[in-house]
Amino acid sequence: METLKESNEHIRNDSNETPNEKLLSHDDILSSNRKLHFFEETITFSEALEKTKYGRFNYLIIMVTGMAWANVLMDTCSVAFYMTVASCDLQLTNYRKSLLSGIGFVGIILSSQLWGFLADTKGRRSVIWPSLVAGFVVTLISSFSNHFWVILVLRLFNGVFVCCSSATVYAYSSEFFTEKTRSKSIMISSFIFSFVGMILPFLAFAIINGEWSLVIPALGLIYKPWRLFVIVCGITGLVCGIIIYFLPESPKFLLSINKEEEAKDVLQKIYRINGGRDELKLPHIILEEDSTDISTPQKNDSSNMQQFFTSMWEQTVTLFRKKYILSTVVVSATQFWLYAIGTGLYMWFPHFINAMGEFMKNNPNEKGYLCDIIHEKDLSLNVKNDNQTTLDCPDKLENITYAYAVLMDILYLLSFAILTFLVNRINKNFIMFIVILFCSGCGLVAIWTANVSISAILYVIFFVVAIGINILGAITVDLYPTQLRGMAMCVSLMIGRLGSVIGTYIVGVLIANNCELTFYIPCCAMMICGFLILLLPRPITVTNQDKT
Fold it and tell me: How does it sit in the membrane (predicted)?
């Protein structure tokens, strides 16, 4: 008893306590000190990010993210609008149109893993802004090309640079938001992406249908409206690149490579931009998730090329370990079919809608099935047609083609607006399931309906399934830890772009042999992926074990 009193007296004197304060046992003192040490000197990254508030900086990130995604759409899918009117200038046979439509996606596939590795080791911002600027430069040069093979190579490099912003920006933007605000912010960015993307058919109508031309003797070409359209579609990337140059690196990435002071500086900057007036005092910050199975840049940072690719390979293999393999397989398979439909089949959307529009114009009271109309218009782009000598050289597209393209973008816009409201109220996996089921169902009904107007509308709704790409992005960033997030996004999108290439190249062959199969395969595959989405594990969350 005397010993306990002396111990308590000693503790009281060391703590500058008054004699009236209650005496504590030795174990109580140690327990209290441990808790006090944790709460005063250590916080998680999410808790630190929460202290920066939600304000102007976050709005800027949301806007830039949406614009970066829109740049991917405008740079890759603009080909669908101008390749028809550029047929004679570039000597585009049906086979060459297939090559031109898919070559950008090939560039994305070839570089996806590399961009993912660079983003996870060198930083998100440091690879995003140079790639955006370089992509615009390549686009600018390609608009002056007068030879098919030259523009094909340039579009390949454009795909390489576009790839970085299409995947890495997911990881970059998501790391400026807490778990509470992340999904909603990604949906708002998707809304902006859809809104900017909606401008594409208006730009095509306003520019491509122009009646002017400019002779440039030094280059031996006639500069026509479609060439200006190519440049305009790349300006968004240039603007985004300039803005991101002035933005900070992801604080979560900096923390993951043990640059805590730099991460704190970024958080302080965010705090001030968001309206904070006093200094943001932050103790030691720790990451929430376990990263023991991740190859960090410090372990593999070397100029040796063999070690560089070995490190990249090890990081990729981690995605297919037991802990992540289900997520990786399901996400990648879903991305494959989303892109096969949303970009692969979409590359021929203007042609098909143009045919349906002409049918309705020439046969206002007649019924017809979608595939029958396509066959009659001879829009089946058989790869054997490379020897074709007579080229169809229309100067303009039918107005109804632009009208249905605008309708699709309006549906995108409305869908993202609804998703922004629902994403924090309903499980994202369930939302994804409903979107896939509904849009795929519309795709099947479109080929079974004899009413051409209804069939055309259902055909448009079928492509709205591509909003699932953004929902899946929001799901994916929650499934992986910080140092795997960039690689996970890039690998899944690489497989997705493979779907784009396959969808673009074989659509003509499938339509020539069995048009209905072009719809049955992707619709049924999409529905299967919808059910698999429901099996994905819960997102990574903070636990007490993580903190201790």
Answer: Multi-pass membrane protein
d(Cα 80, Cα 102) in Å, to the nearest integer?
A: 10
Task: Read off the pLDDT of residues 2-22 as tens digits, 9 standing for 90 and up.
Answer: 444 444 444 444 444 444 344
Task: Tell me the pLDDT tens digit for each residue of 36-80.
Answer: 444 457 888 888 888 888 888 989 999 998 888 888 888 887 888
Taking the C-alpha atoms of residue 533 and residue 528, their distance in angstroms, rounded to an integer, is 9
Tokens of 236: 């968004």
Q: Report d(CA 381, CA 1) in Å as an integer.
A: 95
- CA–CA gap between residue 484 and residue 318 (Å, rounded): 8
Residues contacting residue 41 through CB under 8 Å, at least 6 positions apart = 283, 284
**Residue from 454, 499, 508, 446 nearest 472 by CA:** 499
Say what the alpha-carbon torsion angle 416, 417, 421, 422 is, to the nearest 10 degrees. -40
Distance CA 474, CA 468 (A): 10
Structure tokens at 145: 């090309």
Taking residue 525's Cβ as centre, other Cβ atoms within 10 Å add up to 18
**Could you tell me how far CA 100 lies from the centroid of its own chain?**
22
Tokens 């203007």 found at: 350
Which SS3 state, helix, strand or coil, does residue 175 take? coil
The predicted pLDDT at position 546 comes to 39
pLDDT tens readout for residues 471-497: 888 888 788 887 777 778 778 877 887
174/222 Cα distance (integer angstroms): 45
Collapsed DSSP state (helix, strand, coil) of residue 216: strand
220: left (phi over 0), alpha (psi -120 to 50) or beta: left
CB atoms inside a 10 Å sphere around CB 222: 12
Token look-up 């007579």 returns 390
Nearest 5°: phi and psi at 322?
-50, -35
Out of 2.60.40.3880, 1.10.10.60, 1.20.1250.20, 3.40.1830.10, select the CATH number for domain 46-289+311-547: 1.20.1250.20
